[in-house]
Backbone:
């Protein structure tokens, strides 16, 4: 089992690649659209799993509270931006400008998680707990991804 840090970092690396594909004008529209859909779904499940299995622990300790609150607040802002982008086609007017903002803000968010947040968490989560947190994160993320798919299917049926 990966540690919680490796599990989160693996996702971030995949997100960095997807963001680069979406931003790459030399790629086909279909490839960029597919990368956007993958990014949108994976980040939703990733953020929910982070909040429930990682930030919930950090927020329970004085040492991690401010950092955890700051990151969870950024999740909300990023989610608003993602919802906004998901409403229109990727070649719609203004889409790329908004996406560039998301690209910048998301990279800032994950760099901060891997740096400041992980540093704080090291004082809150002991070494022998790291794989347990990693497996709970992955399990929660999988459940959340299932819920997102279900929500999408329900919407299509309406
Ligand atoms: Fe996050
Ligand atoms: Fe993250």
Residues:
């Amino acid at each position: 089992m990966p540690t919680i840090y490796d599990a989160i970092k693996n996702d971030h690396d995949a997100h960095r690649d997807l963001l680069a594909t979406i931003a790459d004008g030399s790629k086909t529209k279909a490839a960029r659209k597919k990368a956007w859909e993958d990014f949108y779904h994976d980040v939703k499940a990733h953020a929910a799993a982070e909040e429930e299995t990682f930030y919930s622990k950090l927020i329970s300790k004085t040492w991690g509270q401010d950092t955890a609150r700051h990151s969870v607040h950024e999740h909300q802002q990023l989610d608003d931006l993602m919802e906004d982008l998901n409403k229109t086609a990727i070649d719609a007017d203004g889409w790329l400008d908004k996406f560039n903002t998301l690209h910048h803000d998301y990279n800032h968010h994950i760099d901060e998680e891997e740096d400041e947040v992980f540093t704080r968490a090291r004082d809150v989560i002991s070494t022998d707990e790291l794989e347990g947190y990693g497996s709970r994160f992955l399990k929660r993320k999988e459940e959340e991804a299932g819920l997102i798919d279900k929500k999408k299917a329900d919407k299509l049926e309406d």
About this structure: The radius of gyration is 16 Å. The mean pLDDT is 95.
